[in-house]
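In keeping with the milestone schedule agreed at the kick-off meeting, the structural modelling team has produced records for the first pair of proteins. Each record is given below as a sequence line and a structure-token line. The laboratory manager (R.T.) confirmed that both were archived under the project's standard naming scheme.
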Amino acid sequence: MSKPLLTADPHAGFLAHADEIRAAVDRVLAGGRYILGPEVEAFEREFAAYHGGGHAVGVANGTEALALALQAVGVKAGDGVVTVANSASATAAAIQEIGAQPVFVEIEDDAMLMSPAALEAVLAAQKGKVKAVVPVQLYGLPAAMPAILALARRHGVKVVEDCAQAHGATLDGRKAGTWGDAAAYSFYPTKNLGALGDGGAVFTRDAAVAEQLRLLRQYGWRQRYVSEIPGRNSRLDELQAAILRVKLKYLDAENATRRTLAARYLKILAGAPLQLPVIPPGTEPVWHQFAVRTPRRDDLQAYLAAREIHCGVLYPMPIHRQPAYAVPALSLPVTERACAEVLCLPVHPALASGDIDRVGEEILRWSRS
């Protein structure tokens, strides 16, 4: 029987760098600092340098990163925050966590990313109510940031990028996360840059925003035990920071492997009855997911699973149709169709070209059945 192919394989990611990771963990254990110590400080410097300079602030996870980033740029309870509904519900959870209100906007049909035209209409209709826009850099593809940024500036709203799936992606030679006022990252183990537990960070080029983030993540303390502002406990721990420092060194090479695998998929599946991923001009994706679309999504997923090829559905139900965040009167037909059709094929650095050939051949066989 063929080996199972997984949508993501964090264990393989650990094994690829096991000796360095174990040495990093030993270094932390020997040093005796476990929260917000030298490893976090070093990772923050290195992650900021990876983005060309600025400030990185480590936090507990990606959801916290987005919530704190919004707070740090001035979003308050009751403010509207525009985002897309084909993201993980964590995006909406972060907005609601600070008392703000998600405002869902339509996506473009090809890349399944925020539609600038739809954003413009929403900003005009809700003038004064919306205080921030959260473009989700979904599947490893940056959204149309120049257009989104221009609209946001015209309407006087902040931009916080949700980069949980886009570590290292670029648009016009500029990294995702460097366009807006701040950017939120998740280091969940399945991400392109994944920890071996939870972790997150916010990147910003604004020193004042970074300082606010450092206060917010630890009770508003500048002086220990003295809260200057209301804050919370959202800290990246030393073990995860040390592991991330190891894995950051290999991020570009592993993203390059993902691009090679994705190119192979695009070639093999060129004639398949699927809507293949669209790469917008000037974009260099990092292929967190290889997201295809078909009205027969459930049938294809079951067919592949029976052959030990495990695919993901990111995401099966748009947020505005989920019970916790339902907006019954809102119709987003492009979003709803995308969620009904999307299927994410295995694509991660532990796969070989033969694995991609196997997936492609099975899909072609399914299409003839």
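The second protein of the pair:
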Amino acid sequence: MTYKRATLVLISISTLLRLIIGSSIELGNDEVYYLLYAKFPDLSHFDHPPFVGFFIQFFTFNLTFDGELAIRLAAIIPTSISMYITFLIGCHLRNQFVGFVTVLLYNLSIYGFIISGTFILPDSPMVLFWMLSIYFLLLSITHTPAKNRKFYLVLAFLFIAFALYSKYQAIFLLFGLIVFVALFNRAWLTTWVFYLGFILPLISLGLILYWNYQNDFISFTFHSNRVSLFDFSFNKDSFLRELIGQVLYSNPYIFLLTISFLIASARKKIRFDGHLVKFFLIFSFPLIFTTFYLSFFRNTLPHWSGISYLTLLPLLAVYIEEKRKIDYRLFFGFVSFLILIFFLVLEINFGWISPSSNEVRKAWIGRKDPIMDMYGWRQSSKLISDYLLEHPDEKYPIISDKWFPAAHLDYYIAAPNNLNLYAIGDLKNIHKYYWINKIRPDISNENHFFYFTDSRNYRNPKDVYKEQFKDYKRLKEFPIVRNGKVVKYLFMYKLTKG
């Protein structure tokens, strides 16, 4: 079997496994939220640019199919394409063996395999377009500007534009392009295509800016509060969380292999073009350093730099070939990783090893179990649907004061029962629902509302809405059962204005 055929088999197996995982667990907090981007498309959105919504629309045939697996196809299929792109990058660097190892390493990455590869997030389209950008930049700016290389550069600019329209981190692609050309291949500065190509990403940025202009630049206000560069109060917990997260999300093996590669490269113990090493480092490490820097002072999320570690995989594959350490250890790690992932999926659905809770307060059951965020919503959907069938006169709008759990309630409870959900609260808490509320029917004359909360994140409506309602009546408590045990409760309230 050639390494190309082995790669295709590996990608096929990976796709099948991710399809199984994607159909086995309920949508997470972020996934149901980004589904709103497909239901309510716009030039941009409060949190991120809109491409993730476009992907969901495309892969679900404009929401004709809106099951969990159908929605996650927008992550699973593009990731399989991204894996093949990394194979081509590895082949370009050296040979098909390096390409095959690159794809194998990709499948060892929690960020690559699960976070962006199975769950539907803005990272899913961004990773595909980022990898396409890297591939065509490699074919262009690392060479002299011949005619075919100019065409590759135009394609690179196009995919950079798409990546920017997926997630703001893609701005580091433009940064890397400018730095690499300015420092290592100035011949491109004499070509008109280098300057003209910037029009494409500028169009993406222009659309984002135009939407923000219409909405008081709310996205930039939101993100500037999250990633301020000038708040110098050290946040130890955030930094440690970022460090541990980067190690785990990239996979400890890949993280340590990256450090080993950097040391070997600095000591010139790798027979590889230093020009190309600089290319990959310029397109990966600025984002890694930036997220570490931000974590000193602000709460960050480790997956922000996940794409940087995927970008480095072809270099690590070259390093593995140099050291001849592929043998069975890497395959053993791959199999072990898959076993771990499937064990976690089974644990989410069956809770075989989760310790029994001694909590007697119903409003607190499951509070310390983080996997409860991805379990119980299917049960909740059926329980509420059955209740509404028994009480056909109770068809009230649902209200919530935060995007989470509003998005879950919207997908699993409101939509199946033809109810509208409204997020009533501060913009910083309700996010895109600020705009959705304006699209849905006016509720100013409504007198009764449903309010739902669960014991994982219990919030009494009297504390949430204070004096806004005259009566707060708990209608029912729904036990959510897993493996024969009650693992949390869903509480259903009826709120009345007067």
